[in-house]
Fold this protein.
Amino acid sequence: MDDHGANVYDHFYRCLTVQHVLQHIRRNAVTNAYISRSEQKTREPHLKKEENLWHIFLDSLSILCDHKTGGETVTSIAAELDHAKKGKTTFWILMNRQQLESKSTLRTSDHLKNLMKRLHLSACAVQADEPSMFKSFHDSVFKAKDRVNNYRKKLQGRIEALERRRTELSYEENLLVGAIITLIDENKTVETLCKKAYDFRSTGLMRKLVKRARKDPTDEWKHIGHFIGRLGAWFKACLFLFEHASDFLDILSNYEVQLVPSEDCTRFTSPQPMWDLERLLSKTLPTHFDVSKARLEHLFGQDAWEVANSRLEECEATDWRLKTHAEASMAYFFFIEDPQFVNDDRYIGCSKPSCMCCELYLEALSGNFVQRPRSGNAWIQWRLPGPSLSASASAIATMQRMADRLQRAIEIELISASKGQVFTHDSSTNISSVLGRSSMHNQ
């Protein structure tokens, strides 16, 4: 790429890395006065109150089609209204790291087709088709069994960590640990575990868990709630889809499923300097900013500088392989092809709330996309979709806009720490990217 493109590339990833480090040291700033637990409580993933049923419908489909072991894939689905095909709706599906002809990609496409057929039959019925709902749930979690067991293992690890602190826990906390151990131990199959995890969300125990998560400085309870939420997401998504299939009968009566091509992971040279904290901060921010060790430790606690350097060492040891995210690639596809969205609702469904870069990208792309639920996490190996920077002036301009936004956010935080965004999970203790509550079982 030319000098300008290289400078934009370097600046973007330096800003993103600083933002990543700031999030990391915030999570470790447990005892200082930088941010109180009461402030953290209000800063969970952004989920718009006016979110409509169609958005939840697309997110739910994406969850049920996301099959790989936890974190390996994210699935995105968007819907095009094709007037050339007599108003047929094309459901475009895309997974990050997908290969169009691979068996796993084709299985995901076939799974969506089968799911849509069942939803259409249910929509034509007088009431929700409960047997079809359970069949869809079973098929989805069976295909995602490695992902489910990954969450089970992580949940079990968190519970074991709390058990080692059993003498420090209150009587109610020990009861809660026992209940979650029972949830894990008594539900050996992925199907029963996911169903019971969903049921757990509606109990008084879950309310107690949420309460402890908001007060616990170690975040162990928050992690536990997060994994229970992820395990329950499949059943919740199925309930919502079959409850509301009749609302979309016209769409389900005339549709097709198509795969969107996406880029594979690509190796790039990491920008310099990236892994030396002092040089990274001085290169990222204007010269008048105080980014000294004393300033960071004033904002984030006495060990902030050490924690930040430790995090950079971990990042440096990681293979620099940038990855496109599914919702960003889907946005790029719709931006380039410019098809008409169903109902002109420019919403892109996804199996998880979006990271900070995907949020910025959808804004910077100027495609007037509807804002998605977002976690705000700064993943430093995020890659811009589409051609390389050397082949596209528009890509350089998009990355420049994103870098400017990132730098402003960093500057605001270092001026007034209370403006910083607290780290959040991609689903929280009492919500997930599927927002609707079902009534099929009066819950």
In short: DSSP finds 17 helices and six strands in the chain. Residues 67 and 226 are 18 Å apart (CA to CA).
